[in-house]
Amino acid sequence: MENDQIVRRLEVINEGHPEEEDPTASLLKKILIFAIDQEMFAVEAGQVKEIVTGNQLYYLPFVPSYVRGLINRHGEAYTVFDLKMIFENETSKGNKYLIMKIPNDQVCLIVSDVIGIMGVSPEDILSLSNQKGMEEMFNGAFDFKGKRVLIVHMNVLLKRLENDLSK
Amino acid sequence: METRKKVRFTIKLQLLLGLVGVALIPAIILAFISHTSEEKIILKMVEEHLNGVTENLLNICSTCYEMNQRTINNNLNVATHFVEGKVELSSEDPLKWTVENQVTRETLTKSIPKMLIKKYVVSGDTMLVDKITQMVGGAVTIFQVMQNPNGLLRISTSVKKKDGTRGIGTFIPDNSPVYKSIVNGRFFRGVAYVVDDWYISAYKPLFDSDYKVIGAVYVGVKQTELNILKEKFSSLKIGTTGMTYVIDCHQNEKGTLLIHPTLEGKNAYEAKDLDGRSYVKEMIENKNGKGVYRILDPKDNKVKRKMIYYRYLESMEWIIAAEIEEDEVYAPLKELRNRIVGWMMVCVVFVVGISIFMARSFSLIIQRIVEVLTFLEKGNFSKSLEEKDTTRGDEFGIMASHFNDILLNFKQLLKKTKETSEVIAQSIQDLTVSSKEISTTFSQQAAAVKEIVATMEDSGQVSKAIDSKMGEMAKIAVQTQQNVQSGFSLINNTMGKMEEIRQTNNKTIQGIKLVGEQISNIGEVVTIINRIADQTKIIAFNAELQASAAGEAGKNFQIVATEVRRLADSTVSSTGQIKQKIGEIQKAADNLMLASETGTERIKEGHDFSAHLQKVFQEILNSAEVSAGSAKEIDTLIKQQVAAFEEILLTLKQISSGINDFEFSARSTASSSEELRKISANLNEILMKYVV
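YS: structure for the whole thing
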C-alpha cells in the first residue's frame, strides 16, 4: 500500500465515515499467529507485550526441558518457553521471542516466525473440548489459510510451569 | 674295303726311268752348257772378225778420202793460180743459154752476161779449164751466179757427159749447200754432184771488183773412181760365204752398191729380207750397227740368214758393210752338236741296259712282297715270302726276313686282338647301357635343376618384388615416422593448448567461485535485508500490539503499523523471492561450478588423455623410428638375401649348366659308346674275315 492510501484510510477513520467502517470490528478478537518450525500457533494479541529477536539465550539449569533458559530484555530476565518441547518433545529452532504480558511474571515464547496479527470472530474459534491430551493447553482453534491454528492458553502453561517447578 | 688299284707305273719302270734319267739329264745339261758356251765363243769371234773387217775398210776409205782432199787442195791452188786477177761480167752482148737444173733436169732459155777473167771470155769456152785439167787431172769447172732461177751455172767445164759433150749449161740449184756457201762468199768442200756424177770437190767463190760474188771455180776428183778400194775390198775374205761392200748414202744415189762382189752399181735401197724388213734402208738410217737378216740367195734360190756388220764413213757418206752367212758361222757348232748327240745315244743304250738289269733285280722281290700283301689284303695271312727271298745277300733279303717276322708277329697280334675285341665288345655293350642310363639320369636331373632354377628365378622375382615392396615400406615407415613426428608435434601443441584451456578453465572456475561468493555476499545482503525486514515486521507487530493496547487511540497507529508490517511482509516476501532467485543463481552458479568442475574434469581428462596420447604418440614415434630402422634393416637384409639368392641362382644355373654339360657329356659318352659298340662290332666283323 502506498503512503497515499494509508493516509486516505487514516482520514476515513478519523472522519468517521460509517459506510467504510467495519461494524463487526469491535467484536473481533485480536489473535497473534506465530510459527514454531512448521507448525502454526496463536495467542491472544493482548497477552503479548512485545516481540523481540536476536537476544542471547542463557541456559538455565534444573528447570523443565520446555524452559529453554533466560533472555535479557532491557535489563529484565524473561523465562523462555519452548512449546515444541512441550508438544512434541523436540527443541524448536526459533530465534524470536514473544514477550508475554503476564502480571507478576516475566515469560516469553520462543518461536520461529511471527505470521501476523488478525482479528478472529469468536464464532470462528473452535472449542477443543472434544480433543484429548493437550486440550487443556489450548483454549481454542481457528482455521487460517486452510490450516488449523491452535490458540495457546498461557495461563494453563504458566500453571504447568508452576507445577513442574514445584515438583 | 677299297678295291686294289692296278699298277700303271711299276717299280721296275720307275727304276728304269730313274736310272736313265739320272744318267742322261746331267749329260744333257753338260752338252747343253758346252753347246751354248761354244756358240757364244764362235759368235763372239765372228762378231770381232766382222767388226775388225769393217773397221779396217773404214780406215782405208777414210785414208783414201784424205788423200783425195789433199789432191783437191792442190788442184784448187793450181786453178786459183789461173783464174786469179780481174774477174768481171760484160754488159755487152749477153749470151743466150739453155740452162738445165742438174737435179730436176728442167730446162729453160736464159740470156746471161759473159764472164771475163783477165779480159778473157770464159763463158762457153773450155780452153782455160782444159789447160788446168791437163796440169792437175781431175775436173775443173767455172760457175757463174745466175738469177731467176737462182743457181750456179756451169759456163765452162772440163767434165764431159756420157755422150762426150761438155756439161755446160747445167746449174746447181739454190737449195744446194754448194750454192749457199758460194753466194755467201765461203769455200765449200765435200762431195758434190757434178753433171752426172758425185765428185770429191772443192769450190772457191770468184769476186768482181766490187767484191761481189759473181761466180766460182771448182776442182774435183770423181768419187766413183774406186778401183784401188775395190781391190782392197775384194782381197778381204770372210770365210767362204762372207763378203764386204759399200752402200752409197748420197741424196740421189742412196742405196746404190758402190762396191760389191756381184751387185755393184745396183740400187738396193728398197731391198727387203724375207721378214719384210728393208734392211738396206735400215742400215742407212742406223749408219752403224749389226743385224741378222733372212735373205733369199739368187744364186741357189735358198733362204740364208746373214749376219751383217756395218759402219758409216761420214766424210764420203758411205756405209761400209761386211756380212757372212750364219750357216757358215754355226757350222762348227753343228758338228759339235752332232757329236754330242752321237755320244749321248751310246750312253743311253749303255745306261738303259744297266738300268733294266738293276730294275729287274730290285722289282722281283718287291713283286713277291706285293703278292703276299695282296693275300694279306684279302685277310689271308697264310702266305709268306719264300726262303730264296730271305736269303738274298742284299738289303732286300734283310727286308724280306723282317717282313716274314712282322707277318708272324702280326698273325699273333691279330689273334690276340680278336680275343680282346670280343671282351671289348661286351664291355662296350655294358658301357653303352650304363651311358644311356647315366644320360637319362642326367636328363632327369637337368630337368629337375631347370625346374629348381625356374622356381628360384620365380622366387628371385618374388624376392625382388619383396625387396621393392620393402623399399617402399621402408619409405612408408620413414614417411610414417615423419607423420608421427608431425602428429607428436601436433599433440605437443594440443598439450600446450590443453594446458592453456586448463589454466583458462581454472581462471573461469575461480571467476565462477568468485561469482558464487559474490552471490553469497548478495545472499548475506538479502539476509541482512530480510533480517531488517524481519525486525521491521517485528517492530510493526510490536507497534500493532501497542496500538491494539492503546485501544481507540491507537487505531491510526495500528493502521500504520499494519501497513509497516505488510511492507515488512512484502519486503520479506521480496527478499524471499530475491533469496529464491539468489538461490537459483547460486544453484546455477553451483551447477555452473559443477559443470565447470565437470568441464575441468573433462579438460583434465582431455589433458590427461592428451598426455596419454602424447605418451602413446611418443611410443608410436619410438615404434615408428624402430619400425623405420627395422624396415631399413629388413630392406638391407632382403637386399642381402636377394643378392645371396641371385648368387645361389647363379650357382644353380652354373650347376644346371654343369649338369647340362654332364648330360651332353653323358649323351656324348652314350653316343661314343654306341659308336664304339658299332666300331667293335665292325672290328669283330673285320677280324672274323682274317684267316690266321
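YS: worth flagging: The mean pLDDT of chain B is 82.
IM: good catch. Also Chain B is about 65% helix and 15% strand.
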